[in-house]
Amino acid sequence: MRKGVLTVLAMLFMLMSHAQNGTYVGGDISMLPEYEGSSTKYLDAGGNVIPDLIPWLMTDCGWNTFRVRLFVNPDKTQKGTGVVQDIDYVKALAKRIKAAGANLILDFHYSDTWADPSNQKLPASWSACVTAQQKADKIYAYTKECLEAMKAEGAAPDLVQVGNETTYGMAGIKVHPYDYSGDDWDGMLAALKAGCRAVRESLPQAKIIIHTERSGNATQTSYYYNKIKDVDYDVIGLSYYPFFHGSLPLLKATLLRLAADFPDKKVHIVETAYPIQWWPDEAKYDTRSMWPVEEGKCDGQFAYLKDLIATLAEYPQVDGLNWWFPEEAGNGDAANWTTMEGIVISSWLNRGMWWPSVSNGGHWPLTTSEGGVLWEMKKFLNPQTSGIGNIVATERESAIYNLNGQYVGIEMKTLPKGIYIRNNKKYIIQ
To answer: Which residue range forms the structural domain that includes residue 407?
Structure first.
């Protein structure tokens, strides 16, 4: 038993001792065509209009990856919601991304609207799919149809998300990151396997991401991915917003747990962001003491990104970092509130990387005295780290394992009776 525990600890130490070698860095730019259609002007650091944001982000800022979401039949008449990305929209944007030489992440929502923890609605056109197997069959056919169409246009994605924030289900199938009665895990597994099978058949070289958003809860995250251990995928995708999921120690605990429980899987932060100017009313955690949010300033956002990259550098399984909605620049420069024409989003989220100008003179990139957040992203690819010396000792030493070598947490008082190992020492809880 002790040998197994030590093996696990040695593995974890090795993982944390090597510098992170990031592969994918960029952002979800799903609304870029809408901003362009609203006459939005993005300016470089010198105040010059950027003719095409995609190649500029690659050459000037060092980004190499862009993510695009896909809805089945979005209602485009609902202006300002951000829900406009049907297959034709996605193909056009994907062709631009691939032509620029960037990596493309395709994000299947399997819904007509936002798919997230509280909203995993079946598309209206799939209403005849009542059973889980019917839903799985539809997911397979739809996934394959979309991927084949994109491949035919020279816009095949390099990474494919089978579902968006699927912690609580997908396409009307409901599960929970704990063992609750009424959970349809059989249906969920069938749906995930169907989507993954379609990806493997159409794009055998593409990496498959399964995306959840319990990044501040190591137990729930591990529970979910243990439930889907028989699904054929490559990357654990996480959403991490500190104002929703908690500060970095909670994310660290999750990454440590994932390294122990799923050593063969890469981890990709597929969504992250931090506000400027105004604090979100819906925030669950107040992290302003670490990263301040002040009107007219973006110092907190920059500091958050800097700290996040430094944290991820200690976890070599993390090979991707994507900012969500970096192109946000207000409501759109051609916004007409009477007709709703030119409206890109109806309310500013203030998590983008551009100053939301009140005029149509153009939007400046966010910068601080230390640098610009757009340019800071590329440091994920080559983080400055001193290896072992940068590891927070308390993080490594506080990890607790049972006698089977399984990670069980960092708080001894929360554990049931038993024998545990912490920092190579045995502890008995009676």
So the answer is: 1-19+392-430
